Amino acid sequence: MRRRLAALDTAHQLGLALAMAVLVGAVTVAVPVLNSTGLLVACAGLVAAMAVLGQWLWQSRGSTDWTHTFRPPPRQRGADLRIARLADDIRSASGGDLTAAGRLHETLTSLAADQLRLRRGISLTQDPERAHAALGPDLTSYLTLPAPSRLSGDRLEAFTTTLEEL
Predict the structure, then answer these.
(1) Residues 85-96: pLDDT tens digits?
(2) Residue 162 burial (CB < 10 Å; 0-12/13-18/19+)?
(3) Residue by residue, what is the 3-state secondary structure of 134-145?
(4) Maximum Cα–Cα distance for the chain, whole Å?
(5) Distance of CA 127 to CAs 31, 55, 115, 124, 130, Å?
(6) Which pLDDT value is given to residue 139?
(7) Residue 87 — φ and ψ, nearest 5°?
(8) Of the candidates 121, 143, 119, the residue with the CA atom closest to the CA atom of residue 132
(9) How far apart are the two ends of the chain, measured CA to CA in Å?
(10) Which of 102, 103, 106, 130 is nearest to 117 (CA)?
(11) Which of 142, 139, 140, 141 is CA-nearest to residue 158?
């Protein structure tokens, strides 16, 4: 019986609880023998039991966590939009899209500046000689010149490897 009640959708569950309450109320008012106090208390107990059953059905639809331990949900793979945008920029830039090549150039420039500052204490703009020595001639020329129309995957891999090894 409980499975059939739990299988009902919310509207039908509430309708069933309301119909039972109306039925008990109608029987209580219509039958003159039920005017005694004991029977009225029994009917009120029945209504309360049905309310508890309705509440139980409502709560059983979803799990309730009473631990009060609030922690951020685990990050799902592919949920970081920055990585998805970067992957799209790489694909588009290798296909010749100038806008994506510009965004990729800006991303690599800011990444190089951050890596130099954090790992070597060098500023890309204020100390270009030391930055050139740390980054190498190919990556330095890429970062200082305007973004090329195409960037090959091998060249991008070499740039990211250089930045990782700083």
Answers:
(1) 777 888 888 888
(2) middle
(3) HHCHHHHHHHHC
(4) 103
(5) 97, 70, 14, 6, 6
(6) 84
(7) -65, -40
(8) 143
(9) 68
(10) 130
(11) 139
Residue 112 CB coordination number (10 Å): 22
Q: What is the pLDDT of residue 89?
A: 82
Other Cβ atoms less than 10 A from the Cβ of 147: the count is: 20
Give tens-digit pLDDT for 15-60: 887 888 787 777 767 776 666 766 777 778 888 888 888 888 777 7
pLDDT in tens, 117-143: 888 888 878 888 888 888 888 888 888
Query: Residue length, the chain?
Result: 166
Take residue 56 and report the two structure tokens written for it. 């139980």
Which two structure tokens, joined as six digits, stand for 10? 């919310």
The residue type at 105: H
Q: How many CB atoms lie within 10 A of CB 62?
A: 7
CB of 47 closer than 8 Å to CB of 21: yes
What is the band of 146 on the pLDDT scale with cuts at 50, 70, 90?
confident
- The owner of tokens 């005017």 is 35
Output the pLDDT for position 34: 60
